[in-house]
Write a structure and sequence with these properties.
312 residues; 5-stranded mixed beta sheet; 14 strands; alpha/beta; 39% helix; 9 helices; single chain
């Protein structure tokens, strides 16, 4: 039995399982960004005994811990490089901290990488290789899985599709990347900017905080400006996917994360059409694009599988 942990930009999850595609018990909580990394670490410290008690599993039954972290990680030092969304993680020795706290060997990796591993082993990529996984949530992350193994470049990450430049900035402005257009935070910021500039939404209540979910619901109802924001999001992501196909030609691209849940009409179909129309024609039809299969627990599945593989 292993403990799997997902540390994301908006949620924290802990799960118990054998790393074989099943989860025996799950704990889920929200993340307070203002509390930073210290706040999340306090949550983990409190959640582990709570999860064990509810599942009636003794800590002595645990063989190790696997972590999917929402940001780049260093394989050699098993530490966090940084979080792009929450302060207090730069250079943090996460594996050492968990090992000291729990008395268990720990392995960490980027959350999109372990999610990709889970989808390759147990989900929409099962039996296929290579697969390229993309998560579109608070941020945009990617993972390349070849023959059931995570491709990590030289050990500090790879497949960072969310950081592909879409629009080059002027001298006094930074470049805009996929994450700026396609992530949940990017959509929220674009909607807020549009509203502050006098743009009117037909189905978005501007007296309430603007969320990506609210923009998605407005788009489903036919709101012109909300649909325009989602079109910008899908076009940017599809541009990046075309780069992935041109460079890697994976057998399948699998997309998960909260933003993708808007569905076929407003998300997957426009992406597939864009890739088909603008991609390299010699590679046309070799890569299919599908929704992820493992839902909100995908990172936990991957973290457990990572622990099983690395902590034998």
């Amino acid at each position: 039995m292993f403990l799997g942990i997902e540390i994301g930009g908006t949620k924290l999850q802990l799960g118990l399982g054998a790393g074989d595609g099943t989860i025996s018990a799950l704990w889920r909580g929200g993340v307070d960004r203002s509390a930073g990394g210290d706040g999340i670490r306090r949550q983990i410290t409190a959640a582990v005994p709570e999860l064990l008690a509810e599942s009636k599993i003794d800590r002595s039954q645990l063989r190790g811990v696997g972590v999917g972290f929402g940001g780049p990680t260093d394989d050699a030092t098993q530490s966090v490089i940084k979080s792009h969304h929450i302060a207090g993680w730069d250079g943090f020795p996460l594996a050492d901290w968990l090992t000291e706290m729990l008395g268990l060997p720990t392995v960490i990796c980027n959350d999109a990488d372990v999610a990709g591993l889970a989808e390759a082993l147990f989900g929409a990529g099962k039996g296929l290789s290579p697969i390229f996984y993309i998560t579109v949530g608070t941020g945009v992350g990617g993972g390349l899985i070849i023959d059931g193994e995570i491709y990590r470049g030289v050990g500090r990450g790879a497949a960072e599709i969310g950081h592909i430049v879409i629009t080059e900035g002027d001298d006094d402005e930074r470049d805009l990347i996929v994450e700026d257009y396609s992530s949940g935070l990017g959509i929220e910021r674009a909607a807020a900017k549009m509203a502050s500039g006098g743009g009117m939404f037909d189905h978005l209540d501007l007296t309430q905080p603007i969320t990506a979910k609210a923009v998605a619901e407005a788009a489903k109802l036919g709101d012109y400006r909300a649909r325009r924001l989602y079109r910008m999001a899908t076009d940017s992501l599809a541009t990046a996917i075309n780069h992935v196909v041109t460079l890697l030609c994976p057998r399948r691209v699998i997309i998960g994360g909260g933003v993708s849940l808007i569905g076929e009409e407003l998300f997957f179909e426009p992406i597939r059409r864009y890739v088909a129309e603008r991609g390299m024609q010699a590679l046309a039809g070799l890569t299919d694009i599908v929704p992820a299969a493992l839902g909100e627990e995908v990172v936990i599945h991957g973290a457990l599988a990572l622990a099983r593989r690395r902590l034998k």
